[in-house]
# Entry
Amino acid sequence: MKCTIVSTQVYEPGVSYDLALKRKGCIESLKYNLSFSIPDSVNRPITGSIKIKFGYKNTENDLILDFQNEIANVLSVLVNGKYDTYRFENKHIIIPASSLHEGSNEIKIDFIAGDASLNRQVDYLYTLFVPDKASIAFPCFDQPDLKANFSLNLKVPGHWQAVSNGSVLSEKIHGGTKEFQFSETALISTYHFAFVAGQFQKLTKTKNGRTINFYHREDDSLKVKSSEETVFDMHFLAIDWMENYTGIKYPFEKLDFIAIPSFQFSGMEHVGAIYYRDSRLFLSKSASIDDILKRATVITHEVSHMWFGDLVTMKWFDDVWLKEVYAELLAAKMVGPLFPDMNHDLNFITSNYPRAYQTDRTAGTHPIKQQLENLNFAGTLYGDIIYYKAPIVMAKLERIAGEKALQNGLKEYLKTYEFSNASWDDLIKILNKYTEVDLNDWSRDWVEQDGMSMISSEVSYDGNGKISYFLLKQEDIFNRGRTWKQNLEILWYKNGQYRKVPVYLEKKEMEVDGIVGLEKPDFFLLNGGGYGYGYFELDSASQQFLLKHVHELDDELIRTISYITLFQALVNYQLDPKEYISEMVSSLKHENIKQNIQLILENFEKSWWFFLNDQERGEMCDLVEKNLLQIIKDEKDIEIKSTVFQTLLSVFISKSTQDLLYGLWKNEEKLYGLTLSETDFSTIALELSLRDYPNADAILKMQLSRINDKERNEKMRFIMPSVSIDESKRDKFFESLKNPENRQHEIWVRTGLYYLNHPLRAKYSVKYLQKSLEMLEEIQQTGDIFFPKNWLAYSVGRYNSAEAAQIVTKFLNENPNYNQNLRSKILQLSDLLFRAERIIDKRDQYGKNPPDIKP
# Structure
């Protein structure tokens, strides 16, 4: 790599690809020695000092450091032992070439740390530097392929704990201050560097010579006790599994994990110091199926990142999907032994396909591998495609290459690039050794190409009612002429008997001889094996049969595929929403597989709020609520009871159910043997207020007084105005969100927006929609990686009216040069809005095309 910097793009804000490429060619042997002094007041600044040691290959060029801060926060700069002049330009500290040596250099900078990535609370803080936010807190080369050894010294208030990537070498008390010195890390990227400090409780467990520490702030000792053993055991299991699968021992010095209240993500894979949202780890006795599975998945996912993402890291964030897909794929494999009675093929399908489809069918979809010109937009790359479509595609790759061949390829990949960086192209080169399939061609179809195909059939019958002709067709849902090669299984079903016919679909049309001669079936499923990907259109006879009889099918996986296919038919205008909801509620009474129950409920809830108007919900609410309550009453399984109850809490409308829930809340009672948690009672109070229940303000205040935990009490206090009966209070809540300081707790904001923009309040809250869209760019700049999506999901994504659709369309049309990634996010999260508006307002004008907004 040549070290010549000539482009002016290197000086632009953020880290451009051009700058990253040039720095990678100039800098080597990088070490950071950091110290921070954290005061006991959030109103006082955190000061820091950094020594940066590195080799420099060409002193003809100025050196560009990243520091997303103000020039006043650069206190001093010492270059190779001399205080030197420097430029501060577009959030970069620029060191003149004349101050640098060929070979070894040392820069020492004293600074005031930026708070935006330090997440400071009254009695704790935690860093969160993904993807490019380390340089907010301290000067550095903030790009993933300049890995470095980090040393850290922390001075904190004397009653605080501290944890970081390295182990604690020393812990000293100086008056009211405690000083921690941490060991030097292995080579890691800046976004993997982390520390947490504050008032935390510490739990420790040792197994087979390995010790893990667990830091948390949960005051409910019973909740801790009920979850502690499971959470520890899952970490030990995941480490052992990954060591066996990769052939590489745990690659870092230690592994601790920290449960953080209202943490922005479910988890974050900092080397040796994994963060989790505390509610993901600490589950109540009434935890739903989804909660239990998500806990197992997030732990195994984050532990697998220690190898895929941390040991080997992507060169540039356009390959961020690569670390996520293998973490997700391997997590799915690990979860298996934890739930031996579960159908894991079914679980993989229900966990990934619906979420992948909900984005890939939209005009805002994108390829798995995306383009990225500057790291300041790296956060916009995250979403359903990399988390849910990518595992589906990698599962296809595993079936092409074979499970053992893929494992061997991944082993070679990890060993070749350990403590370094690699790209998707690097992995493809290795995997091509282990398969006869041209993976470069396969990658162009599935990794580098966006969208999916609609797959349909034409069938003819002879005079005896037997199939004489079967044509399988695929067309790009956006009419761009693209095709996707894949293996499918067409399922033929009649009178309880079925046959699966394997097909390799490699062109736009192909005749399927294996079905010719069979009798006319009750139904066809064009994705009968479940692992095909696309919109699989049902013929009218199959659609009506499945809608009425899906719950009668003996095979649980075929039922899963049918539920997914029917919902696809609904969102593609082929089903009447009222009929769909009625039949799905009926199916729910007969379904006994937990993941299928969860799937039905998720699709039902979307249909209820998006595809019905107020009058239709009013007409159907008694039937729906009585059925849900009857299931809760009759069901013996607590997980199923809880899952159905959570749906009831979301959809209830009738006065009788409002009164029932009020009685439960008032007396803190069980519901048909289901013990409700503090969170459940808080949700009841909020949902009653949303429905303008009598004395709603008093109910909210009483619930607030019941919450003893300080942080949960503050969260409830924050959310309450968003659900107030008083519209002026709701207006004031929305106005408060314009101040970034009031958006610090992104999980709280998300919950507040959920209620503020709820369909039951839509005619009052639609006035917030235009401003919500206008704020999106600032949300992206100031928030963490998932916040832009969540901001849209709980604003744009809560509406189903023509008025809301017009606001979104007008905004996009008036901003033709809007950032493409953010534009895509708007299109993704408004997709159901446009479909719903079309279904509700034009019920007799069904069609197959998405809204008239081009990707």
